């Protein structure tokens, strides 16, 4: 393969490109396994999933994640977990999360006391405390 | 930065015959997209949806990694601390975008190694613009301003697509691109408002890049049945012409207002229709370059091969023979 | 004060030139994640140079940082020879990064106690960056030395070829005693002995052997403005655009 124009990248002039022309295959797993990255924006907040890095081991995953996910975003802390170590409930089970209206007893909005109390105060002609 | 002009291929008859999707699952899938829900990696999806998405995200990732080369060549030459630090950070972000995008594509089941291998063998494409040389510093400012501007238009459109991991990657990419375009614009304007020879250098670069920029969004879409399906599935989000018009609308005035011209005598906005009129760019040239015969295709691929070859002993030294590919979660 | 000026300049020049060299890997690194990490550190280094030139400009009446970095004649650069060499392969790059960054971290540790306020303030400011740089360097040296036979041999031979050059970092300037007396900097010999201990320990852990250096002055000269042929080339590139037209904004 011949380049048509003179090479204009000064870095390239220093590189031995000719030698590499036959290099055309990257082996499976040569780029290592993946780690899921969780980053915490600041103390007190949750760690949130930010993405994935390829790394040979957890320590290197941290070294890489620090730059890939911490360089542009504010970051207080990072976790990494091997992808294959994460257990997840499949999306086919998403319907399990649907709550029905009969479950109002576990919602704050399911408890409407104020009307009752106001009625009581009206019936007994009580003044509002502090007023 | 990313390259437009995605090449969506039509499936072969055999692929259609071999992958008859279950009509009930397909109906549920389409209903979900119609309601504006995102598709996640573990979901059932039509064969053709997966195939086209891999292609799309892979081309986008390839464009980022190849896009790092023309500007990367100018890092050591960038004039002054401000321009230099911005340029390194920008090129680095492009590598970072490639990283995010290859991961998004991996969630669909194709490994990064396979994608890099296909790139090295020209089996997969990347944006044509990166097959043109950045001859002077002015070219770098044109790329940083206008190619990134074009990329943002495309990426903002794609970020409203249906595939969750791609949307998430694009969200972060768009956030970073907003710095890229600002630094590009800043450097561009410095030349435009600079000395006579700086202006001349910029005008020449702009003339060189105008056709590749017009090529950027790809040829007019012919809305085939296939294309309509990709639109319905929210894989393809806007027509090429629509995006090109949007680009001209936002950026031609910015070019003209700093006293530069564009090398197309027909270029003007039709005030009645609100549509930009222009000379149709040479699409034969577009196909010639995308098929490998552009001014820098050989140098770009050779450089990528160099990088991969020289990194191989490093990667292999840290390989764990027991580790197996597991598809990233999200 | 000449000694202080010289101390700031050589520290800045080392960072500027090595930052440029390391930035050449941006887009060409062995794997995407490493490409990103290494590029960040190149930016940090160029940023450290900028910070030091800014001190020289603001406090010591030297020209603007852009002038100091991109318009100074080669003979007035005081970087050591090690940072001038081309990036080569990742083995040399990694070893140079390891040898240089440990010295840099220790140098700034000493700077953080400097009686010269701007220098101690800078040292405190960039402490976190330098900490990451050596974590990164150590991680790679440990892994490559325990990786394959090839990676081990490559590291060892890069170490053999680079170690004597690294000693050039500690070349003693003429008027160093002034800095020591004024408690601005504890001196290159002190720094060198700290560095030898640190690097020696880590090399041992990695199973690498520190080579016996016969000519301890082989990498000397940079601090006095004598350079390898490679500095000329990189300075040409760095100034290529600036030289097209002086006195304009680029």
Describe the structure.
Chain A is of the alpha+beta class. Chain A is built from four helices and three strands, in the order ααββαβα. A three-stranded antiparallel β-sheet of chain A has the order 2-1-3, with helices on one face. In chain A, a hairpin with a 7-residue loop joins strand 1 and strand 2. The longest helix of chain A is centred in the middle third of the chain and has 13 residues, at 58-70. Chain A is elongated. Chain B is mostly helical and 330 residues long. Chain B has twelve helices and two strands; from the N terminus they run ααααααααααββαα. In chain B, helix 6 (137-158) runs antiparallel to helix 7 (164-192) and helix 6 runs parallel beside helix 8 (196-215). Chain C has 250 residues and is mostly helical. The two termini of chain C are 32 Å apart. Chains in contact: A-B, A-C, B-C. Chain A binds chain C through residues 10-11, 14-15, 31-32, 53-57, 59-60, 63-64, 66-68, 71, and chain C through 24, 28, 31-34, 36-37, 40, 86-87, 132, 135-136, 139, 143, 237.
Key attributes of the depicted protein:
heterotrimer; A: 131 residues; alpha+beta; 24% helix; C: 250 residues; mainly alpha
> Spatial order of the strands in the main sheet of chain A?
2-1-3
Contiguous helical run count of chain A? 4
Low confidence ranges of chain A = none
Strand segment tally of chain A: 3
Give the class of chain B from helix and strand content and strand pairing: mainly alpha
Spatial separation of the terminal alpha carbons of chain A: 91 Å
Radius of gyration of chain B, taken over Cα atoms and rounded to an integer in Å: 20 Å
Q: Label the overall shape of chain B.
A: globular
List the helices and strands and how they pair.
The complex is a heterotrimer of chains A (about 130), B (about 325) and C (about 250).
Chain A: H1 10-13, H2 17-20, E1 33-40, E2 48-55, H3 58-70, E3 77-82, H4 114-123
Antiparallel strand pairs in A: 1-2, 1-3
Chain B: H1 13-18, H2 23-34, H3 47-72, H4 80-106, H5 112-120, H6 137-158, H7 164-192, H8 196-215, H9 225-232, H10 240-256, E1 268-270, E2 275-277, H11 283-290, H12 297-317
Chain C: H1 2-23, H2 32-60, H3 65-70, H4 90-111, H5 117-125, H6 127-145, H7 149-166, H8 176-181, H9 188-206, H10 229-244
Helix pairs in contact in C: 1-2, 4-6, 4-7, 4-9, 6-9
